Structure formats: C-alpha cells, structure tokens
Amino acid sequence: MLKFIDVTLRDGGHQNGFNWPFEFVQRYLNSINSFQEIDFVELGYWKQTGKYSGPFYSIDEETLDSVCQMSRKKLSVMVDYHYCSHDVEDFPSNVNFSQLQLIRICLRKEDILNGCKFAKELKKYTKCKLSINFFNITNYEETDLVSACDAAAKANADFIYFADTHGGLDLFDNLGVFQRFTKLIKEAGMIPGLHLHDHSGKAYFNYRNLGVAGFGATDVSLGGIGKGMGNLKLEHVFDLQGREHILDHLLLDQKLFRMPSGPYGILTARDSITDHYAVEAERIQLKPSQFAKRLKGITGFSKDNYDKHILSDE
Question: At 306, phi and psi to the nearest 5?
Fold first, then answer.
C-alpha cells in the first residue's frame, strides 16, 4: 500500500511566498484529518532564509508548536541542504514536538555525499524518520542513481525519494530502470518514493504506474499546487465521497491557490529544464515559439539552475 505525504502547504508555498494565513492553515488541517490515507502533512521549510519571507519558509519552534496544536496528523518539514544550517542542534526534535515525525532533506547532485553524512546525524539528533530527496531526477545518469542510493543507505534513511522536478518523466518509458532501483532500495530496508510534477500532464499517468515500478510512497497536493506548474492532484487520487469539503478550499481560498497556467512548462518539461524559465517566459509574455528557440541554448548546469541572462534581452 502506498504511503502519501500531503505537500499542499510546503510545495504550494512557492506560489504565495509561503505566506499561508494561520486561519487558513487551521481550516485546511481540519479538512485533511478525514483523509486517513495521508500518512504525513508537510508544513514547509525549517528556518531557511534568503528566498522567501513567509513564516512557512522559515518555520521555527513557536510556529511549529502552534501548528502541532491544530493538527491530529503526523507532521513533516523539509530541509534544503544547500541553504540550511549544518548544525543539527538548530533543528527540532521529536522529543519536544511529538507530532513531528518526519524530516525530509533535499539534495542537489553536487551535495549528495556531504548531505547524506549530515542527514545521518540529523536523524540521530531529531529522532524523526528521515527521507532523502534527490531532485532534477530526469537529468541523472544511472551511475548517478547508484551513487545516490548507496549514500542514502549509509545515512540510514527511512525513505529515498526521487523528484521529477522538471515534470517530464514518463514512468512507462523508464520502467525497467526504476524497477531495478526500487528493488535495491527495498532490499536496503528503505521505502522508495517519487514526487510527481504535472508540467507535461503525466502526473496521474505516472501515479498509476507507481506500484508496477516498485514505489512505496508519493506526494499529493490540493489543486496540484506546487512549485512551477504544480504536482499530482490530491483530488485525482482519493475518493472524495463524503469528503467533498476539501474542494471548498479551491473556491474559498482561491487567492492562495493561483499557479502559472501557460504552455511554457510543456517545453521545459520536454527538454528537462527547470521551470523557472517557464515562469519567467509567461511573465514577459514571450511567444512559446520564441521561448523554444531560447531553450535550445540551455545546457549543463543551467538546465537545473536558472540563469536570468538567458531570457534577458540585454
């Protein structure tokens, strides 16, 4: 049976600067309590700074304590190793926050070895379950996947997650590769997970193939809200009979659930390029045909890391 993590508040925060009103958070947590299928609710990022000013990008002890009083669900926070503190004593412990039961640390390819060493110490200190998330997965070679999985196993992770960050993955076309890796992950005593984006409309198709591919966990969000063009939709996955109230948020709180809707994400997904370019192309109203020509020049590091000069007219 698949394990589900609700990432509405965490990944969806990219669309509103992580400025979720606490009144909304309380109503949303009350709504999600009726979804027994959801194992964890992910709140946001822990004490990170520099990108967003919203409180759910820099969750601290006071905020976490307030949310713990609102929720009956097991809770999770995300940590981006590239930007977070590397002192484990700066992190929350399950001893002090019993509902916090999962910490997920996302790693760039260049940070895998050091990040996994840090993750091992973080699990020991926080006494939480640990998930190591590797993103930009469509730009990994098989040798990269082998190294990543080996490092995560040594870190004593509970979950290994791959993120289809650019939204172009076709799980059927890559079925054999993932079947091999999910088998290895399970043999090492960990749960393999896949975070699905929907830039190219494949999220639900990939979701239906998760079991065949050997995955044991995935993420969902209400309305598909998430970074860039969004995620696998919660309402596409679960039976809403008697729980239709979850959809009320999409109308009552529609200002919080706005996402880019243009065609640009189809092109970045096709070329396995970060959707920051798609968001910028929509902002400056670049024609998709013009955008496609600009994308041809994006290679190497700039595929996974936004270079503001590429779409600039300067």
Answer: -60, 130
Tell the CATH superfamily of the 3-256 domain. Aldolase class I (3.20.20.70)
- pLDDT by residue for the chain (314 residues), tens only, comes to 899 999 999 999 999 999 999 999 999 999 999 999 999 999 999 999 888 999 999 999 999 999 999 999 999 999 999 889 999 999 999 999 999 999 999 998 889 999 999 999 999 999 999 999 998 888 888 888 888 889 999 999 999 999 999 999 999 999 999 999 999 999 999 999 999 999 999 999 999 999 999 999 999 999 999 998 899 999 999 999 999 999 999 999 999 999 887 799 999 999 999 988 998 998 899 999 999 999 998 998 899 889 988 888 64
Task: Please work out, in degrees rounded to the nearest 5, the angle formed at the alpha carbon of residue 187 by the alpha carbons of 186 and 193.
Answer: 15
Three-state SS annotation for the chain: CCEEEECHHHHHHHHCCCCCCHHHHHHHHHHHCCCCCEEEEEEEEECCCCCCCCCCCCECHHHHHHHHHHCCCCEEEEEECCCCCCCHHHCCCCCCCCCEEEEEEEECHHHHHHHHHHHHHHHHHHCCEEEEEECCHHHCCHHHHHHHHHHHHHCCCCEEEEECCCCCCCCCCCHHHHHHHHHHHHHCCCEEEEECECCCCCHHHHHHCHHHHCCCEEEEEHHHCCCCCCECEHHHHCCCCCCHHHHHHHHHCHHHCCCCCCCHHHHHHHCCCCCHHHHHHHHCCCCHHHHHHHHCCCCCHHHHCCCCCCCCCC
Predicted structure pTM score: 0.94
- What residues does CATH 3.20.20.70 cover in the chain? 3-256
